[in-house]
Amino acid sequence: MKLAALLGLCCVLRLSGCAPPTCYSRALGLSKEVMTLLDKIHTSERTKTCAEVLPTIFLDVHNSCVTSKLRDFLYVVLNHPDQSCRKRPRMMLLKRKVQNLYTIITRLCYRDLVFFMDDCEAIDTGHGTPHYTEDRLQLLEER
């Protein structure tokens, strides 16, 4: 009896760490996958010429501009001027991942994601501009 209870407790503890992904964790993970894939596309000899057409993008699911920038990026990937680039496996994978991320952000997790900033330049350059609140700005001016 004690052995069965102990075995049951071990199973419950082991399974408790296996929670399904939330919208946020899936969007965050998929954005990292897209960025890793983009890096491979830019560095690979086979896809380097395909990457020249792609706009620079630094995905941040905490930025409210991510939806419009992702939509524009997806348009470029779907309408790549070189037909042979559209058929390359990495480019097809990029297209699928970006479509999935866009769908997750705009439809599945529409009200679940919280945007902490609205800095479109940060998605284009990868460098965010600090936004100080009025109190913080006043402290900086006094120094």
UniProtKB/TrEMBL annotation:
GO terms for biological process: positive regulation of transcription by RNA polymerase II. The lineage of its organism: Eukaryota, Metazoa, Chordata, Craniata, Vertebrata. This is Cytokine like 1. Keywords: Signal. It holds the Pfam family CYTL1. InterPro entries: CYTL1 (IPR029253). Residues 1-18 form the signal peptide. The gene is cytl1.
